[in-house]
Amino acid sequence: xxxxxxxxxxxxxxxxxxxxxxxxxxxxxxxxxxxxxxxxxxxxxxxxxxxxxxxxxxxxxxxxxxxxxxxxxxxxxxxxxxxxxxxxxxxxxxxxxxxxxxxxxxxxxxxxxxxxxxxxxxxxxxxxxxxxxxxxxxxxxxxxxxxxxxxxxxxxxxxxxxxxxxxxxxxxxxxxxxxxxxxxxxxxxxxxxxxxxxxxxxxxxxxxxxxxxxxxxxxxxxxxxxxxxxxxxxxxxxxxxxxxxxxxxxxxxxxxxxxxxxxxxxxxxxxxxxxxxxxxxxxxxxxxxxxxxxxxxxxxxxxxxxxxxxxxxxxxxxxxxxxxxxxxxxxxxxxxxxxxxxxxxxxxxxxxxxxxxxxxxxxxxxxxxxxxxxxxxxxxxxxxxxxxxxxxxxxxxxxxxxxxxxxxxxxxxxxxxxxxxxxxxxxxxxxxxxxxxxxxxxxxxxxxxxxxxxxxxxxxxxxxxxxxxxxxxx
Length: 474
Known about the structure:
It is a single chain. The protein has 15 helices and 11 strands. The protein has 474 residues and is α/β, with parallel strands linked by helices. It has a domain at 7-227: Amidase signature (AS) domain (Amidase signature (AS) enzymes, Alpha-Beta Complex), CATH 3.90.1300.10. Strands 1-3-2-4-6-5-10-11-9-7-8 form an 11-stranded mixed β-sheet, with helices on both faces. The longest helix has 22 residues, at 368-389. The protein starts with 6 loop residues before the first helix and ends with a helix.
C-alpha cells in the first residue's frame, strides 16, 4: 500500500473494494507513532479517525460518499476544531479547546475527509523554521538535523513523511510555500479571500490565508475545490464561483506566457537553485511555453513593508491574550496590572514578543505616519507591480527560498537572516495573489529545491496547470 500515491488512484481502489479507508488510516497512524521523533503532531485523533474511516467505508459501499472520501488530512493547530485543543503552538493556549469548527473543517467533514490530528507550528504562525513552538521544534524528515521550514512545518512534515495524504496550513508570508519547498512537496497559498478564514486564529488578518499541502498538484486541486468558496461569516471572503480546478489541468502549456522577475534572478540567487530552475524553464520552453523577463521594481521593499504591516496587525490581534478571558493566566500576579503583564510575559515566546513590540512601536504616536502609513502606501505599489506584470504574462516563476533546509539553530539568534528566508514569498501576501510551491529538484546534499509559481488574483487554475505539467516531467 503506497500512502503517497495520488488520491485519484487510491479512490479508484476504494470504489472497487480493493482497499479501505480504515486500513489506510491505520497505516498513517502507525507512521505517526513510528516517527514521533519528528514532532510533527500536537494532537492525534486515533479512535475518532478510525471510527470516521469505518463510516466512510460504509458510505462508499452504499454509493453515497463525498468528494474527499478516503483522503486523510492533518490540520495545522491554528485552525479551530470543536472540542479539540487549538494551541497555536503557544503556552498561552496550551489548554484551550475550540468551541466551534472552522469553515474549512466543516467543508472537509461534509466531503467525507478524515481528519487525523493537529500539527505543530511556529507559535502563532510567527517563524520560518518551526523552531518557535512552545512544544519543541519539528524535524525535517529528509535530514533530521535540519528545519522543515515554517510556520506550517508540522503540516508539511505530515505529508512529506507519509503521516497523512494531505494537510492544511496557513500562509501569512510564505508559511505554506516555504516549508513545502524545504520538504519537497506541493503547497498552495490561494488568493486572499478564496478560502474562508472563519475559525483561523489570526496572526495578521489582511495577510492570512488557509491552503493545502499534498504530494501532487492534483491532490492540491482536490482539496482546494472543497475548501474554497464564499462564506458569509468571513467579511473578506470573495463572492466568486469556484472553478473546476481538475478540469483545467490538461498538462498543455503551449502558448502560455510565464514571467521571470529580474529582481528574483539576480547574482544573489544560489547557483544550485538557479541551475534547477533553469532546467525546469527549459522543459516548459520545449513544450511551447514562452518566457518573458518582467520587472517588479519595488521588490527591495517587500521584507521591510511586510514586517511593519504584519507585526502591526499581530500586536493588535494578540492583545486579546491578557489572562482575563481565556488562555494562560499567571499564578504569580498580585493585582490586575500584574495579571496582564505576567500572563503575557510568561505565556508568549521570544519571537512573538519581538513581533508584538515591533508592531506596537510602528503603531505608536509619532511613528504611525513614518512607518505604518508609509508601508501601506508601499504595499499598494508592490501590488501594482504584480498587476502590471500580469498584463504581459499568465503567471510568474521564481525561487521559493534563498537556501535549502538549514540546520537547527543556524538563524535563531539572527532575526534578520531568519526574516530573509521569506524574501521570495512575502510579496504574494502583500499583493493578495495566489502562489504554489512545486518540487523542482535537489541540491548536492540531496535536500529538496522548490520553485514558486505566482498567479493573477483568483487564477489558481493556471498555477495548478503548470504545476501538474512540471510534476509529469520528473
